[in-house]
Specification:
Elements (H helix, E strand, L loop, with lengths): L2 H29 L16 H24 L3 H28 L10 H32 L3 H29 L5
Length: about 180
């Protein structure tokens, strides 16, 4: 690998660190803001949870197809699918924040063992959704700077984490959807 590639990659590191901190902090801050409680005349965006759950499901499918594409040496398809997966993740995040800024939180109503299963899935989903941000960004930067060996190494970690976050997002939705008002 040439120094030029490493230098290009290093230029992105500040952005990776910044975004890896700013995104979770912004989501956490905005999650606690309810526009209706602040006096804004906005309708609850109650139609969004099934849409962003669908986006999570589509992200999972896109990730799997992208891995199949690269294993079949279809680099361009892989690249396009990964860009699409990133766009889907951003769309999810925007809708998720918009929903929580306009709607009251929904409490999980299950009891017994299902409650513990739900919270285990929810907590691991949330924690890994924070952890995955720098992994996705680093993996992407290593690809666009043509550091393919380093890209492959981190992609082996990024893929299962991202897939877990996408799939558990759908599971969380299905588990809590009976309790939406």
């Amino acid at each position: 690998m040439s120094n030029v590639d490493l230098e290009k990659e290093k230029k992105y590191n500040k952005w990776i660190v910044a975004l890896s901190v700013i995104i979770p902090v912004a989501v956490a801050a905005l999650f606690g803001v309810n526009l209706r409680e602040l006096g804004f005349d906005v309708a609850p965006l109650s139609m969004l949870p099934p849409i962003y759950a669908g986006i999570n499901g589509l992200t999972a499918v896109v990730l799997v197809v992208a891995v199949v594409a690269i294993k079949n040496k279809n680099r361009k398809l892989h690249e396009n699918l990964m860009k699409f997966a990133i766009v889907l993740s951003v769309m999810f995040l925007v809708m998720y924040v918009a929903y929580h800024m306009t709607s009251d939180s929904t409490k999980f109503g299950g009891e017994g063992i299902i409650k513990y299963i739900y919270y285990f899935i929810l907590i691991t989903h949330i924690l890994l959704s924070i952890v995955i941000i720098p992994f996705v960004l680093i993996t992407y930067v290593r690809a666009i700077t043509n550091n393919i060996d380093r890209h492959k190494k981190i992609a082996k970690i990024t893929f299962p984490l991202w897939l877990y976050v996408a799939v558990t997002g759908v599971i969380v939705y299905f588990m809590i959807s009976p309790y939406y008002a």
